Each structure stands twice: as structure tokens, then as C-alpha cells.
Queue: 2 jobs
Job 1
Amino acid sequence: MPFGKNARVLRDIKARVEVQDSEVLRRAYIAVARNETLPSQVRYQAQLQLNNFTKYQRPTTVKNRCTETGRGRGILSKWGLCRYQFRLKALKGELPGVVKATW
Amino acid sequence: MSALLTCARSRLLELTRLRCDIFSTLYNPLGLRTGAKYLRARLRGPSMVQYYPKQLSFKELSRAMPELKLVNFEEEQRLFDVAERKKRGKGAPKKAKSPEESRRLAKKKRK
């Protein structure tokens, strides 16, 4: 196994699942809150409902971490790897189309 | 174009209404926000969940195929080590039943 999932990755997975579960409801509330044709009281209520969602139900909590090591910084989003794992894998030739630059 | 410019505003609005009827779009001459863009946007959850590649844990594997009778050597080793440590009197201390027994809470009280 390349890595035992660390707590931050587990937390991120939890956030991703919860975001997915609550996404439709959240979208509906956002649509009501941003709808200028509805009475302001209704819009305000919808906005209050949006505040009731937990931290893990908001998509901004989700962070792309390294899929190999779980590192949170220096991620190349195209491969989902941190810079060091990207280098290792690229040098091993595991990333199709990635070659070391020489000139 | 010049003919359009000379048209009355009401006529132009009428045209827009007609266009909305034909193409079945919402007639919104004031340009108010209707929140439709939040409903129209694709859901991001499904792709978010797929970010980390699925890893099969030992538990899942053995539960899926109980007929194989797999043995988790790492876990067996850990349990063996714990038993060995306990034998030598190096096991985990017993759970404290009162704050007096607990070293951590007793320390807090003294301060």
C-alpha cells in the first residue's frame, strides 16, 4: 500500500461525501436566496438556512490533496500529485506524455 | 437598424416578449437575477468524490471473499506484540474510574 490514509485525507474524503449529499439542497437554497423576484422575507429565510449547513457540507472545505502522500501543498492539479511525487513518477515514466526537459 | 431605433420602446418590449414565447425562455425585461444560473450549473459533488482513487482495505477484501480465509499478518503481529508486552507488565494502564485515579486530571487540580 503506497500510503496509510492520514487524518487530513480522511477528513477531506468525509467533506467530499457530505458536499455531494447536501449539494442539491444547498443549490436550491442558493437559487432562492439569489432570486430577486421573490419577496425579501423568503430570500432572507433561505440565506439563514444556508448558514445552518455544517463546515463539511460547504464545497470550499474540500481541498485537493496529493493522492499518493496526502500532502496539501504544491499539488499539480492535473495529476493530483504533490511536486515530489510528480517528479518521482515522471522520472519512472508512469505519467504518460511527461518527459524531462533538456535543451 | 435605423428603423428599429425609431420604434417605440413598448413595441420593442413586445418583440422581446414574443421572442421569449417562441423560444420558451423567461421574459425578464428588467434583468432581475432569478437564481437560474445556480440551478443550471452542473453538480460538482460526483466528480469531487472520485478525486482519491479507491483503495481496497483488507477488511473490505476479506468481507467480500470470506471463502478465501485471508489472514491479516500485520494485525496478527500487532496483537501478538501487545500480548507479549502485557506479559512483561508493559501493557496499557487500566482506565481511571474517578478523577483522583487519573494522573492527568489530578495534575490539573493541583495547579
Job 2
Amino acid sequence: MQDILKAKHWIIISLLPALLLYTFIVIVPIFWSSYYGFFKWSGMNEPSFIGWANYLEVVNDPIFWRALKNNMIIVVASVFGQVPIALLLALMLRQTTLFQRFVRSAVFLPTVISTVVVGLIWGYIYNPEFGIVNALLEMIGLESWTRAWLSDPDVNMYAVSIPIIWNYIGPYLIIFIAAIQNIPTEIEDAAKMDGANGFRKLFYITLPMMWTTIKVAVVLCISGSLKAFDQVFVMTGGGPAQSTELLATYMYNNTFMTYRYGYGSAVSTMIIIVSLILILISQILMKRKEEKGMGI
Amino acid sequence: MRKDVVYEANRSFNPVFRQKKSIFKVIKTVFLITFSFCMIYPLYWLFISAFKSTDEFFQFPYALPSEWTFDNFVRAWNLADLGGAMINSTVVTVVGTIFTVFLGALTAYVLSRFSFKWKGFIMLFFLLGMLIPIHSTLVPLFSIMNEIGMLNTYWALILPYTAFELPIAIFLITAYMSSIPKEMEEAAVIDGAGYWGIFFRIMLPMTVPAMATVAILAFLRYWNEYIFALVFINDASLKTLPLSLSIFSDGYSTDYSLTMAAMAIAVIPTVIMYVFFQEQIMKGMVAGSVKG
């Protein structure tokens, strides 16, 4: 009895620090922000209750919807950029020769670089005066294509997506290489014996065997790109004229630039709702595809 | 394996097949070299530009510097107070990493070795944190910290960094601890060791590999973190490296090679870490993200 009590005591004491820290910093703010979304509050004065006004303002603000659309562009660009590129590379990088290890390290390198540096350096790469993008286009005779990539509203969302894709191919590559290495060699050998080669082996053996991993990667990619902020904020700050506004930059610009904490809280709550809906949808879609895949 | 070799050998007798294969191999190698070049180029450009004068940078933006000078590095270091920023980043990163590893290991020990009523719920509760977009907690955290006077302190960064990294730390270390056999602890219990004794003298030393992975991941994340520092730190003397860089680049927006030098200084520690701990960083990031 004494021992059980002692153990109980110890469990509580040793779990408490992590639980408290985590609860107060990660969980409580969610409820806090959905509550303060109902208040008009500049940070200085006493918050005053204004009902659904902030939430209504958010959903009626066309910029919020543009930010959501831009966020979707980033999500789609990441899913259709990072995942296929990583997959293609993983299929090519199955050996452990020095050259292949070098390619792998090169692809992973941007992942460890500060996102602020990524934003700044890509800002320079797109620079109309000395950026290499325009210089390369001129070199191959496509002067007409040169432009101010980050300020032209027709293209700047696509331009800011590329550094984000570049930044995070590495983790997916490593996930896929691990998945390929996990495919039992017996299956590959059997397929070869049956005469399956090249593309047939790829589509009937390798990819189906990797399907679970690809699904995980897509879900990771969606939740990861919903968090995009740093690179875009450093490159454009959401501008010009809010053309590259993302949910996170919209929240930042509407809270800390204009001191509207009530409104910012409402936006934060909307961000959480949107993220959870998207993660849920992606899970459901992936599940359905799996059932279909099983049927084949 | 043997059959494989024979099979390949048979196929390579066929000259057409062999030729096709070698062309394919050349295309693949060229593609991989080009792709690696694109991945490295931005960083390469950053480093060569940092050694040029601004005039030279404008004249020949992509060429190697005609003479390699450290002027930009010295000037950037002094103008941007990068020394101060580096100290701040180091303090926040090191203390945050120690907190993360210690709390993660302690919690993991309880979750992997004791069974109690709320265990499943607590695991799920920590898992939930990985779904929450960090930036949606900025406004409430700012208000709370403002209320208790925590803004503009190291704690304003250390505590949120630790809290948001805890789920990954706990899951990585719990998974590792669960795979360690219990004999050692049982022997220690018979010898009369208490829970703290077992934790410090047996569990911690045996969990070093998992803790190292967690530490490396936490280190990189905290060193590079931007948005919390942007919102919670206003005091110039407390700015971390990413924050100083973003401000510096605004202030010296036309002195590109100077800004490049400042960026190079900030990037060097992570690149060095990457060179030494590459495998661990790759594996850790993947394990951490897949668990989420």
C-alpha cells in the first residue's frame, strides 16, 4: 500500500511540470483566443464585449478569404511540388554511393537553414536588378518573361511558393528512401523473376508498397504548409497591397500592427478551425483512396 | 540475391538493353547533379557574395569575388550587434534544449514505465499539440505574457519553445525507453534505489541516443525560430539572430553584400551542426514528423 501511494505520488510530481507548461502555453491559448474573439480590445483599455462582431468581420473581410486562398496555393504547391519531387529523387537515390549520399545531403541542406535567411536570400534571387531568375531568363532570350517576381500580383504567390518547396523537400526524401528500403527484397526479387521491370515494377510493386508512407507525407505536407509564415513574411510581408497575405501574416498584420487584439483572437480561432477542417478532410480523402487501392 | 546477379548478367549481354541502360544512367546522373546544384546554389551565392564589396556585387553578382575580404563580416558583426544576438540565441537555445530534453525524458519515463488510469488520455493530450498551428497561439500568449510581465525576457522564448517541442520529445523518448528491457531497473529496485535514483542513474544514461536526437532537433528549431521572437521580443539587447537579421536587412536594404555577410554568420553554426550530425538530424526530423 505504501509503495502504491509512493508511486502515485511520484507519477503526479514528475508529470506535473511538463503537463502544466504544455497546458498553459499550447492548450489554454486556444480557448483564450476563442473567448477574446468576442471582445473589442486594443491591449491597453479594458476589453469590451461585442458579441459575434469580430467573427462576422473576419468572414466578411475579402482579404481574409484572399489570405485563405493564398494559403491554399501554398498547400497545393507544397503537396504537388515537394511530394512528387521527393518521390522521384527517392527512386533515384536507392544506393549508398558517395555521389548519392552527396545528393541526399544537398537536398536536405535547406531544411536546417534559418527560415529568415531563406526568405531574405530568395528575395535577392527574385530581385529585378540583380536576381539570378531574371538574369537566367535574359540569358536564354526570354527577356519578355522577366518581371518583378515578388511585386507582380499575377505571379507573386507562385514565386513565394517556390522557396517553400525548396526549403522542405529534404524530409520527404528521407521518409521515402526509408520506405523504399523497407520493401522486402523477396517481393522485388519475385517481381523480377516474373519479368516485371522498370515502370511495371514501379507501378505494380514499389508505389503500392509505399502508399501508406505517401499518404503520411501528404498529410504532413498539408499541416506543415498551413503553418507557412516566416519565408513569405520576410520576402513580402504579405504585400504589395496584401496580394501575398497568408492566414498567419493576416493575423499578424491585423493584431500587432494595428493593436486589435480582439480581432486577432477571432482570426486565430478561425485559423485553428480551418487547419483542423483541412487536416480532417485530408485524412478522410486518404482513407477513401486506400480502400480503393485495396480493391485493385 | 544470387539469382539477381545472374539475371542482371543475362540482360547485359543484350547490347541494345545495355546501351539503353547507360543512356538512362547518364540522364539520371545529369539530372541529379543539376538538382543538387539548384538546392545548394542559394547558399553558395550567399557565401560568395558575403566576400565581395557592394560595387563588385552589383557589377558581377554571380562571379567569384576578385579578392576575398572579411570586411563585410567585421562590419556586419559590429553594426548589427551580431555578437549580442548570438549570445541571446545561444542562451535561449541551450536553456530551452536542456528543459526540453529533461522534461521530455522525465515524462517519457513515467509514460513508458508506469501504468495508471489517465495514461492513455495524457498521451492523446500531448499528441493533440502537434496539430495546433503555432501562430494561432500568438495573440493569447502575447496578452498573457504582457499581463504577467514576461514579455522581453528570455523566458518569453524559452517556455513556449519548450512547450511546443515537448510532444515530439516525449514521443521520441517514450518510444526509445519502451524498447529498453526492464532488468536493470528491477535490479536497482532490489538494491533499494528510489524513482529519482532509477531515473537519473539508469534511465537517463541508457536513453542518451534518443535524447541526443531530441536535443539536435530542438537546437536547430530554437536557433532558427522567428515568429515568437518577432512578437515577444522588442528590447534590442534581447534580440535573437533571426530577428536581428530581419531588422538589419530592413535597415541596410541596399547594402546587399553586408546583409549577406550577416546572414552567413547566422547560418554557419547550423551548417557546422549539419556537417557533423547529418544522419541524426535526418533521422530525427523524420521520426519526429512521422510521429506527429
